[in-house]
Amino acid sequence: MQEGLTFALPKGRILRSALDLLTRAGLDLGDVDPGSDRRLRLELPGGSSLLLVKPTDVPTYVEHGVADIGIAGRDTLEEQGRDLYEPVDLEIGACRLVVAEPTARPARIKRGMALRVATKYPNLARRHYSDRGISPEIIMLYGSVELAPITGLADQIVDLVESGETLRQNRLVEVETIMEVTSRLIVHPATLKLRPRPVARLVEALRRVVADTRAPSGKAVNAT
User: Fold this and answer.
1) CB count, 10 Å around CB of 13?
2) pLDDT 10s per residue in the chain (224 long)?
3) Taking Cα atoms as reference points, which of 11, 24, 30, 123 lies closest to residue 71?
4) Helix 15-24 to helix 196-213 angle, to the nearest 10 degrees?
5) Neighbour-count burial of 21, counting CB atoms closer than 10 A to its CB (0-12 exposed, 13-18 middle, 19+ buried)
6) pLDDT computed for residue 38 by the predictor
7) What's the CA gap between 170 and 176, in Å, rounded?
8) C-alpha 128: how far from chain center
9) What architecture is domain 95-180?
10) Do domains 6-93+182-213 and 95-180 have the same CATH topology?
11) Using CA atoms, how far apart are residues 90 and 18, in angstroms rounded to an integer?
């Protein structure tokens, strides 16, 4: 299955789940353990390799052809708008992109209002509010977005949520879900054209693995 492919995988919470899916689909890791190895490029048996990168950087490595295959969240892909093939929803890393605000200070959204929104997702946030007739002031944050409404920096936030416990502990409440998010397999268009057989085998193998591991309820299996 591998045939010298380069995989860009996200470091962090879904790496183990991503590697489990790929291994079950036929990727031979040999004795490599990305969980304990500090190298960022790992050579695998059969001539393939892994690049371990920041989750938001995965589409960049694939789009520029440094990696043939990657795994990235739907939130990242839609925020960045990359020109990539997305053949499989891997159903890992399940969460949702939401709008949240202070429980004690609801924004009371209305068309044309002034609104400050803190987020790591400026494009998705603007699109969401534009559909409601609002042009918010977007405040870009790269750390704990939940702090923005607590300190008065923003009226609302747009951020990823899993259980919602962090919101509750900071007296914030979800007011709207923008999208459900899971991780997707992504493929460089040139790889798809130049190496269709290994890509097709990988895609079909992953589809079988995902189907086999799907929860009985039909919902995605969370990676955490």
Assistant:
1) 15
2) 556 899 999 998 899 999 999 999 999 988 877 777 788 999 998 889 999 999 999 999 999 999 999 999 999 999 999 889 999 999 999 999 999 999 999 999 999 999 999 999 999 999 999 999 999 999 999 999 999 999 999 999 999 999 999 999 999 999 999 999 999 999 999 999 999 999 999 999 999 999 998 755 545 444 33
3) 11
4) 110
5) buried
6) 80
7) 17
8) 18
9) 3-Layer(aba) Sandwich (3.40)
10) yes
11) 8
CB 188 within 8 A of CB 68: yes
Burial letters 112-148, b for 16+ CB under 10 A, else e: eeebbbbbbbeebbbebbeeeebebebbebeeebbeb
**Identity of residue 121:** Y
Name the phi and psi angles at 5, rounded to 5: -75, 150
CB atoms within 10 A of CB 190: 10
Distance CA 181, CA 176 (A): 14
At the fourth CATH level, which superfamily is domain 6-93+182-213? Periplasmic binding protein-like II (3.40.190.10)
For the purposes of burial, counting CB atoms within 10 Å of the CB of 54, is it exposed (0-12), middle (13-18) or buried (19 or more)? exposed
